[in-house]
């Protein structure tokens, strides 16, 4: 079987877009022997290029994650109704929500061109599959391409596109689900069970397991199931090098947050977050409309974060959030690999 990642330990620093993943966090994961991914989502090509330059200067292995542009059409009527529903939430911060949806491709073509000119070892893709030509362009530049999948049929589709490996995301993972069809919620499944099913469907393709990684025993189980490496995100949220906001940093171990749920309330795409008032008030009515809902709620979420208002924040977290600890990220990486 081919090897996708070049690192001493089978631990991957998952890309956490929106702030938590920093160059410092990626550097700490790499220094500890793991393989970090920079989060390319929501960044301009220039900002991403600057991070790549900083990390490359440290002479460590790393990859970049990109969001594949959505092909799901936005229902403008449903979006307008949701904007109206959220108006009182926004008014609490003196904000007015625009009922006209904003849809973009997260600078997809520009980022591909940048990575073609200045390639990194690995690019992982989230939110579906791009055109075959996009994958071929990256591979032609010397980049290994890994697609994120949530089921065996998605894995088979990704293999047919010619990717070099897969990130197999279980339903326990925090943050956005990578499910190809955003109108569906990810099927509840143990990540090790999913890895075994995907390994059987695409024999020989390198796999990185993600979701439900709460300690070294989980790492061992996922490796035994067939994963070459295991990605960790939630357990890095509170580490010293993470760029997580202070309210989000405290929430995973706050007793008032007793469970995680999958919701579209914040971005219009299924994502696992700590259950709060915003999820309860709007989770059932949120339309499937990414990235339009992400843009709709962004200023509100930023204002809530600045105010420490965890009732209105998107508190992405996986099911193992109670075990997230403060301290150096290197301790998390080495601790997860301790029993392998």
Can you give a write-up of this model?
The chain is an alpha/beta fold. It has 2 domains: 222 residues, Aldolase class I (TIM Barrel), CATH 3.20.20; 89 residues, no CATH class. 36% of the residues lie in helices and 14% in strands. It has 12 helices and 11 strands. Strands 1-2-3-4-5-6-8-9 form an 8-stranded parallel barrel, surrounded by 6 helices. Helix 8 links the parallel strand 8 and strand 9.
Text of the CATH class of the largest domain: Alpha Beta
The number of distinct helices, counting runs of at least 4 residues, comes to 12
**Number of structural units classed as domains:** 2
CATH topology of the largest domain: TIM Barrel
Rounded average pLDDT: 96
Amount of helix: 25-40%
The secondary-structure class comes to alpha/beta
Catalytic activity: 3 propionate 3-nitronate + 3 O2 + H2O = 3 3-oxopropanoate + 2 nitrate + nitrite + H2O2 + 3 H(+)
InterPro entries: Aldolase_TIM, NMO
Keywords: Detoxification, Flavoprotein, FMN, Monooxygenase, Oxidoreductase
GO molecular function, one term: nitronate monooxygenase activity
Short summary of the structure?
Its cofactor is FMN. By secondary structure, the protein is α/β, with parallel strands linked by helices.
List keywords for this structure.
340 residues; alpha/beta; TIM Barrel; 2 domains; eight-stranded parallel barrel; three-stranded antiparallel β-sheet; 11 strands
Q: Strands, helices and their partners?
A:
Elements: E1 11-13, H1 23-31, E2 35-39, H2 45-56, E3 63-67, H3 76-91, H4 108-117, E4 122-126, H5 132-140, E5 144-149, H6 152-161, E6 165-169, E7 175-176, H7 191-201, E8 207-210, H8 216-225, E9 229-232, H9 246-250, E10 260-263, E11 271-274, H10 277-282, H11 292-307, H12 329-336
Parallel strand pairs: 1-2, 1-9, 2-3, 3-4, 4-5, 5-6, 6-8, 8-9
Antiparallel strand pairs: 7-11, 10-11
Helix pairs in contact: 3-11, 6-7, 7-8
């Amino acid at each position: 079987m081919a090897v996708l990642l070049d690192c001493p330990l089978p631990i991957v620093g998952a890309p956490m877009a929106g702030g938590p993943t920093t160059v410092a966090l990626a550097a700490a994961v790499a220094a500890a022997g793991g393989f970090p991914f920079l989060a390319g989502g929501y960044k301009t090509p220039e900002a991403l290029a600057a991070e790549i330059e900083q990390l490359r200067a440290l002479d460590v292995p790393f990859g970049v994650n990109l969001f594949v542009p959505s092909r799901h059409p936005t229902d403008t009527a449903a979006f307008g109704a949701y904007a109206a529903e959220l108006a009182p939430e926004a008014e609490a911060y003196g904000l007015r929500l625009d009922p006209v949806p904003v849809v973009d491709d997260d600078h997809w073509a520009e980022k591909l061109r940048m990575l073609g000119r200045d390639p990194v070892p690995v690019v992982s893709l989230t939110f579906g599959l791009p055109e075959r030509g996009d994958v071929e362009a990256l591979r032609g530049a010397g980049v290994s391409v890994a697609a994120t999948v949530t089921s065996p049929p998605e894995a088979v589709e990704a293999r047919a596109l010619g990717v070099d490996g897969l990130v197999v995301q279980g339903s326990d993972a925090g943050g956005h689900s990578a499910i190809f069809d955003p109108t569906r919620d990810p099927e509840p499944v143990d990540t090790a069970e999913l890895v075994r099913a995907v390994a059987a469907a695409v024999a020989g393709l390198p796999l990185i397991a993600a979701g439900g990684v709460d300690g070294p025993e989980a790492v061992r189980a996922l490796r035994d199931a067939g994963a070459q490496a295991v990605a960790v995100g939630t357990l890095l949220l509170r580490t010293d090098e993470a760029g997580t906001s202070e309210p989000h940093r405290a929430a995973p171990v706050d007793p008032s947050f007793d469970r995680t749920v999958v919701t579209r309330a914040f971005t219009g795409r299924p994502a696992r977050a700590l259950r709060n008032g915003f999820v309860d008030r709007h989770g059932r009515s949120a339309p499937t409309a990414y990235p339009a809902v992400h843009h709709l709620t962004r200023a509100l979420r930023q204002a809530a974060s600045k105010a420490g208002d965890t009732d209105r924040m998107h508190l992405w977290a996986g099911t193992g959030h109670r075990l997230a600890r403060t301290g150096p990220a290197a301790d998390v990486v080495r601790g997860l690999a301790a029993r392998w």
